[in-house]
Design brief:
The protein is an alpha+beta fold. It is built from eleven helices and 22 strands. Helices cover about 40% and strands about 25% of the residues. The chain is elongated, with a radius of gyration of 29 Å. The two termini are about 25 Å apart. One of its GO terms (molecular function) is endonuclease activity.
Length: about 400
């Protein structure tokens, strides 16, 4: 940033002039509605979100900043140059000052506009933007050479940040694919003479009993809700996330330590029949959209088997695709899984646990790494977009 500092020292050492948006821009809304969107439309259609839709007709052909009038207040900004359509509750800010670079103004809005509207609000939140909020906002007008240099730096930062996020996410996806490959290979036993048996031969399925979120308490009977299996639990769990009232204990059904808890409904076919091995030290209540698979195998081995591509493909044959995808437990129990010795089961579980931990470490570390980069970017962006006002 030494070049920018040098330019400021040379061209505007005493500060810069600030002007209100009302002085230097035309501010208005669009006239399109979200129902006007067409998936294959020829022109971008900006609504009240970060997403950009398509539309058949354009309303404007210009360079402008776009912000929603409702939703994402002070968080969502678009820079546009060319033909576009705009939602009727979103604002366009089109500058008529030759000495102002619109992209510079876009970056300045992204940093400072939310603080401005919150400083004028009577409450801690702002649910909608009115035109005077925009027209009263003031923006610095440093020399164009300074503006363009700042835009160049921030464009580069933005591109670098996007590339880094894509690389980190690609690394995580590669590790997941690698893990999936080794898990499937380990549990295929394609080159070994291993007994395979249906789950009905290996154990029994015990259905849970209903409880609702209204029954939840901070401290009570530990329980597993079917929705938590595909949102919050992994391969195995030794501690319940939720609890229900103690006075319900006698009316509930339980998974015992070593059982594998299986969902019988889901939004997708893959969610149906998802499993978590219960390895806690006490019984855990299970919802009536769950089954406890009681058996004598290594519970984590069984849970890993249920994650393989071959098992998921077989499972799909026994899902009723109605309004809610539902598991047909009679057919599901016929799916065969390998039955190696308990020692071999433990060996495979130890290997897969290490892979699982590696992938989870990356998954946990990824948001932290991205957040650190964003914080670094925000620091430099804020510094670049802070100006002393000329006397």
């Amino acid at each position: 940033m030494s070049r920018i500092d040098a330019l400021i020292a040379e061209l505007c050492p005493e500060g810069v002039e600030f002007k209100s948006i009302g002085e230097i821009a035309a501010v208005g809304t669009g006239s399109s509605d979200r129902k006007d969107a067409k998936a294959d439309g020829a022109f971008p259609f900006y609504v009240r979100s970060q997403d950009v839709f398509r539309i058949d007709k354009y309303e404007f052909d210009e360079e402008a900043i776009l912000i929603p009038g409702e939703g994402g207040i002070g968080e969502i900004f678009h820079y546009v140059s060319g033909k576009y359509a705009l939602h009727q509750r979103a604002y366009r800010i089109c500058f008529n000052l030759a000495e102002l670079d619109t992209k510079f103004a876009y970056y300045y809005f992204a940093v400072h506009f939310k603080r401005f509207i919150l400083s004028k609000a009577v409450s801690a939140t702002v649910t909608s933007i009115r035109k005077p909020m925009i027209t009263d906002f003031c923006i610095p007008i440093p020399p164009l050479e300074v503006q363009r240099e700042i835009v160049k730096v921030l464009d580069a930062f933005t591109e670098l940040e996007a590339e880094l996020e894509a690389e980190l996410e690609a690394e995580l996806e590669a590790r997941r694919r690698q893990y999936k490959y080794y898990r499937d290979a380990l549990l295929a036993f394609s080159d070994q003479d291993i007994r395979w048996a249906s789950m009905a031969e290996l154990g029994e399925f015990i259905r849970g009993r209903r409880f609702t979120k209204a029954d939840y308490v901070e401290d009570g009977v530990p329980c597993i809700h079917y929705g938590e299996i595909y949102t919050r639990y992994g391969t195995a769990a030794d501690t319940a996330i939720s609890h229900v009232r103690s006075d319900m204990a006698a009316s509930l059904r339980y998974a015992k330590p070593g059982d594998v808890v299986v969902t019988d409904v889901g939004e997708t076919v893959e969610d149906v029949g998802k499993a978590v091995a219960w390895v806690g030290s006490e019984d855990v209540a299970i919802h009536d959209h769950c089954y406890a698979f009681r058996h004598s195998m290594n519970p984590k081995f069984v849970s890993y088997c249920m994650q393989t591509s071959s098992f998921i493909a077989e499972k799909a044959k026994y899902v009723a695709r109605t309004k809610v995808n539902t598991l047909l437990i009679g057919g599901f129990s016929k799916i065969r899984i390998p039955v190696p010795s308990l020692e071999e089961q433990e060996r495979i579980v130890a290997i897969l646990d290490k892979f699982d931990a590696l992938v989870n470490d990356i998954a946990i570390g990824l948001p932290a790494e991205i957040a650190a980069r964003r914080q670094q970017y925000a620091y430099y962006r804020d510094r670049l977009l802070t100006f002393k006002e000329a006397a």
